[in-house]
Structures are given as C-alpha cells and as structure tokens.
C-alpha cells in the first residue's frame, strides 16, 4: 500500500511538472526530491538488514547533498540566476552528491553481484563500450558545436563512462529483484538527465526546464526502490549462474571491445568531429576489465582441474587417497625402490618399503545396528586415527569398503606402525552418538626386489586374511607375509 501511494503521488507530480506555472514548478520538484525521496531512503535504512545498509547510507548522503544544491538552485532561479552549468555552489553540491549516488550503486553491485563476478564484468565491458559510442557519436559533436571548454568535456566524458559501466553492472544484478530494478532505473534516468542537459544547454549555459522531469523521475525511482517490499534484496547476493564464456559470448565481447575505436575511426575517416585522446582513454579503460575477466577464467579452469583431480584421486567420504591413487603411489614407490643403488647390484630402497593391508573387525555389526550414517562416521574416525599412526612421507589410503592400505618406509616401519594401530584400536570410537569398538586385521608385506605392485599387494592381502583367521587376542591381529 505504501509503495502504491508513494508511486501514485510522486509519478503524478513528475508527469504534471510541465503543466505547473513556471514560477511554481519548484514546489512539485521539491515535493519529489526532498519531501519524498529522503524519507523513503530513511525508511529503507530501518527495513534493510543490519549488514546491508551501506548503499542506503551512501545514497542518503548523496540525496541530502543533491537537495542542498536544489535549494541553492531554486534560490538562484527565483532571484534571476541561471538554471545550471554556471559554476555556482549548486553545481558543486550536485557533483559531490552524484559521486555519493554513484558510490551507492557500486556498493550495491559489490554486495549483490559477488556471486556473478564474471557476468558483471561482461556487462560493464558492454556498457562502457556503448557509453564510448554515445560519447563519440552523440555528445562530442554537440559539445564541439557548443564550444564547450575541454575541461568540461573531459569531466562529462568520465561521468558518462563511469555511470554507463555502473549501469551495466546494475542491469546484470537487477534481473531477479524489483527493488534493484527501481534502483537501476534511477541510475539510468540520472544518466539520461545528464546527457539531455549536455545536448540541450544553450549559449548562456542554461538548459530547458523539461530536463528536470528526468531528474525528478530518477528521484522517484530511487524512492520506489527504498519503499518496495523487496528492499532487503538490494544487498542480498544474487544467484551464481554458470560462468561459461561460450564462443558466441566471447565474440560479442570482442565486438564490444572494438566498437568504440571503430566508431571513432569511422568518424575520423568521414571528416566528422572525433577526440582521439578520449576515445583512447575509453578503450584503455576496458583493458583492465578484460584482463581481470581472463584471469578469472584461468583461475576457474585451474580450480576445475584441481577439483577433477581430487575427485579422481580422493575418497569422497574420508578425504584419503582412493584405490587408484594408492596404486599409482605404490607403482612410483616400487620404481624408486627398485632403481640401481650406488653399489653395483644393489637397489636404492629395496627392503625398506612395506605395504600394510588393514581390514576392520566388527565394522559390519556397527553399521547394521546403528545405520549407514554411523558407519560412515566410524570410517572417518578410523581414517583420521590411521593418518596419525604413520610418519611424514608415508601413505594411508582407503582401498574400498572398510579396507585401508598403508605404504610405509623404513626398516622398523611395520613394528612401529602396528604398535600405534594397536594403541589406536584399544580406544573406543564415537559413532551414532554411542561408543563402539572395532579391531583391525592387518597383513604386512615387505617389498622384494623385482616384485610388481599386484604381487606385493597380493601378499599383504593374503597375510591380512591369515590374520583374520588367527586366534590372536587383542584389538590388532597382525601377520607378516
């Protein structure tokens, strides 16, 4: 209801602005800019979540500065001053207020678009490119004809590019939120007001009164964003779409990147006014964005490759190396251990490499009695304790089910590791919220020179089954192959 009432009143004032007598038009203008926009943003500050109020604080400061400029402007026009562009104190407040409004838009993009950085960058590239075309094909010829000073041209050029880029990012993040769409419309109308003012200013520096309609509409749109029920969405991270830089999308970005210099070069060939320095600046502004985009894509590709490698070599439950990684590591260890040593006929690591094949005793009853979730919890706990039983450089892998393979180095590896495992299994585990006990049957096999991976694993596996059949008493049953 509040949104409807505000929208009706504010947009009615915007639509009827030019119908008011000239000497009374400051009142509907102030009603929209001061009497509604500022209270609406204050309301948004109260309704926005605690961690998402930054854009509203920034825009409130900007609107206050704008309205100070408006009051000064109304004073100037009331007493015979010019509307704008006169270098007065009002223009100073407009400029600083505009920086704050722009800052609030950037803060919004930063918070809402952090899940879609690639898409936001693409939108900014597109918008900056189109802003450069707007400048070169529309604004520059008009400013040249008006003999506007170079400093004024440069400041307006920067303003157009920055607002264009911000607007492009806001369009990207506004797709799923009505409040953000109103916010985006306010920024777009601000850009439209600045462009219209630049194009229509007369020789005395005054602009037509109808341009105020665009600025009033901008205030009204920002206020609608503030009073809309979805105001909390303004700083809520948006969806994170798949960042897929397809061939078509890459081609489109390439066209956008080349658009500004192509338009500028075409105008130069035709003998039309063009500013090579400013066009070069706009093109250069796109280079860092493109570099960031490429760097992000390269980083995402590395992360994807690492994720695939983890999926291929890691057990999803325990995080230990899986069967494939265990076999690959054992192949490499056997090759290194079987390499010729410094003494003729010797092997550099033969006899120091031991394979320990472990199988849990009592795991199935726990899994059947407490459920698979408890069984998984037990496997994770066993994996963590096994990892603490080996030394740096040794390997613990989940071979499958409740079987684990340890690859250890050192002449005393079997004795030292088995003692730690016996101590580990002597202490109960927590699974499914209760204390449970399991034992370990372990078969150990030392590497024989010239032996294959399958052979040494087979000996350790057979020794593990012998341990299971043994009558050993205790939490650990160990058989040496």
TrEMBL record:
Alphabetic keyword roster: Membrane, Transmembrane, Transmembrane helix
Annotated transmembrane regions: 5-21, 27-45, 57-80, 92-109, 121-142, 154-175, 182-201, 213-231, 252-270, 276-295
Top-level taxon in the UniProt lineage: Bacteria
CDD domains reported for this sequence: GGDEF (cd01949)
Domain GGDEF: from-to ranges: 351-481
SUPFAM superfamilies: Nucleotide cyclase (SSF55073)
PROSITE patterns: GGDEF (PS50887)
InterPro entries: DGC-Regulatory_Protein, GGDEF_dom, Nucleotide_cyclase, Rev_trsase/Diguanyl_cyclase
Family annotation (NCBIfam families): GGDEF
Protein name: GGDEF domain-containing protein
Species whose genome carries this gene: Paractinoplanes bogorensis
């Amino acid at each position: 209801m509040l949104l409807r009432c505000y929208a009706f009143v504010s947009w009615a004032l915007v639509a009827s602005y030019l119908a008011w007598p000239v000497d009374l038009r400051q009142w509907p203008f102030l009603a929209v800019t001061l009497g509604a926009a500022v209270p609406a943003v204050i309301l948004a500050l109260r309704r926005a979540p605690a961690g998402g109020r930054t854009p509203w604080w920034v825009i409130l400061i900007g609107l206050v500065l704008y309205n100070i400029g408006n009051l000064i402007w109304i004073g100037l026009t009331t007493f015979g001053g010019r509307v704008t562009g006169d270098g007065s104190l009002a223009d100073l407040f407009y400029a600083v207020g505009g920086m704050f409004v722009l800052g609030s838009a950037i803060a919004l993009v930063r918070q809402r678009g952090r899940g879609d950085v690639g898409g936001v960058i693409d939108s900014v590239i597109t918008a900056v490119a189109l802003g450069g075309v707007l400048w070169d094909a529309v604004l520059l010829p008009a400013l040249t004809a008006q003999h506007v000073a170079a400093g004024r041209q440069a400041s307006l050029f920067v303003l157009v590019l920055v607002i264009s880029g911000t607007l492009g990012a806001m369009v990207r993040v506004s797709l799923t939120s009505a409040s953000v769409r109103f916010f985006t419309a306010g920024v777009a109308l601000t850009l439209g007001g600045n462009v219209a003012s630049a194009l229509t200013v007369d020789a005395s520096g005054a602009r037509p009164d109808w341009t105020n309609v665009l600025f009033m509409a901008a205030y009204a749109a920002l206020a609608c964003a503030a009073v809309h029920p979805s105001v909390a969405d303004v700083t809520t991270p948006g969806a994170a779409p798949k960042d897929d830089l397809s061939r078509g999308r890459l081609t489109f970005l390439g066209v956008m990147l080349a658009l500004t210099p192509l338009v500028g070069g075409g105008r130069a060939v035709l003998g039309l006014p063009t500013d090579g320095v400013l066009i070069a600046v706009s093109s250069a502004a796109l280079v860092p964005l493109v570099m960031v985009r490429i760097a992000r894509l390269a980083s995402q590709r590395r992360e994807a490759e690492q994720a695939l490698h983890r999926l291929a070599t890691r057990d999803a439950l325990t995080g230990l190396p899986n069967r494939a990684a265990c076999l690959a590591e054992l192949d490499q260890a056997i090759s290194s251990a079987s390499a010729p040593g410094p003494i003729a006929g010797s092997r550099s690591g033969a006899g120091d490499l031991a394979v320990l094949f472990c199988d849990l005793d009592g795991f199935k009853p726990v899994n059947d009695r407490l459920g698979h979730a408890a069984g998984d919890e037990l496997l994770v706990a066993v994996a963590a304790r096994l990892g603490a039983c080996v030394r740096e450089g040794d390997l613990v892998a989940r071979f499958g089910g409740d079987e684990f393979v340890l690859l250890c180095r050192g002449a005393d590896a079997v004795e030292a590791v088995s003692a730690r495992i016996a101590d580990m299994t002597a202490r109960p585990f927590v699974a499914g919220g209760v204390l449970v006990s399991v034992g370990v049957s372990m078969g150990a096999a030392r590497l024989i020179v010239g032996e294959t991976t399958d052979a040494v694993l087979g000996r350790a596996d057979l020794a593990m089954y012998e341990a299971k059949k043994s009558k050993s008493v205790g939490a650990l049953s160990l058989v040496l192959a």
